Task: inverse folding
């Protein structure tokens, strides 16, 4: 009886010891592995990641506007600040445009209208840049002037895009949901987007509308360099958290 018991116990002990060893190895790896190796998109360190930034509109296409404030200028400045911030963290950054121009020239023989050539060119740029992820930056508008805040759009049925959008949205909310006035409504949730870039890009990405130019308070903030810097910082923090697999908080 005693002999039989020892035979039964021995393999269990061996299995238990093996499991403890395995758990220790996993724990050691977890605490010593660079955070980026936990990324869902690329097993790379930040200095091996390429981020594509797409500032919306440009040149002849001002985007939405109010009182002389143009979407194309806001998106370009936020993008340029974001580029510097990401580069300081070691990322390689490419931009669809770095000056006040649209990008329709990238597909001269493309679709018939300038607008469509521009939209298709941005997707082409994203798909041919060997990037790991992209962020398209825009400013929103709507008929209801009481609506404020940011909306980060993700692509359909893409878990990585949804994850990136959720994280960036949570960081943007900390910046955009401020000084509520009576009757104002703040967007704070991500949405599924039906945009050419979201529908056709081959890498994870989002389209971030960083505020409403049709709301007086958002407009006042969007006009300032300091607020654009805060928006860029929020997007930067979202990208880094995504790459380090840190959930939205
Ligand atoms: Zn736009």
Result:
């Amino acid at each position: 009886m005693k002999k039989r018991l020892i035979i039964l116990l021995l393999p269990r002990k061996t299995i238990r010891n093996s499991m403890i060893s395995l758990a220790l190895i996993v724990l050691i790896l977890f605490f010593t592995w660079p955070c980026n190796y936990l990324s869902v998109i690329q097993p790379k360190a930040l200095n091996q990641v390429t981020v594509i930034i797409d500032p919306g509109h440009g040149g002849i296409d001002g985007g939405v506007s109010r009182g002389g404030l143009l979407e194309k200028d806001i998106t370009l400045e936020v993008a340029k600040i974001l580029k510097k911030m990401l580069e300081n963290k070691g990322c390689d950054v490419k931009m669809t445009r770095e000056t006040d121009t649209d990008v329709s020239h990238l597909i001269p023989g493309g679709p018939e209208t300038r607008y469509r050539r521009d939209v298709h060119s941005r997707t082409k740029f994203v798909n041919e840049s060997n990037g790991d992820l992209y962020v398209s930056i825009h400013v929103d508008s709507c008929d209801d002037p009481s609506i404020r805040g940011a909306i980060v759009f993700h692509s359909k049925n893409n878990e990585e895009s949804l994850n990136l959008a959720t994280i960036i949205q949570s960081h943007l909310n900390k910046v955009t949901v401020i000084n509520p006035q009576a009757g104002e409504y703040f967007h704070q949730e991500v949405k599924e987007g039906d945009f050419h870039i979201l529908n056709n890009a081959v890498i994870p990405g989002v389209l971030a509308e960083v505020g409403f130019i049709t709301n007086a308070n958002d407009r006042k903030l969007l006009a300032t360099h300091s607020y654009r810097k805060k928006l860029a910082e929020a997007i930067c923090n979202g990208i880094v958290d995504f790459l380090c697999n840190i959930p939205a908080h």
About this structure: Confidence is low (pLDDT under 50) at residues 30-40. The first helix runs from residue 2 to 32. The chain has two domains: 2-32, 41-243.
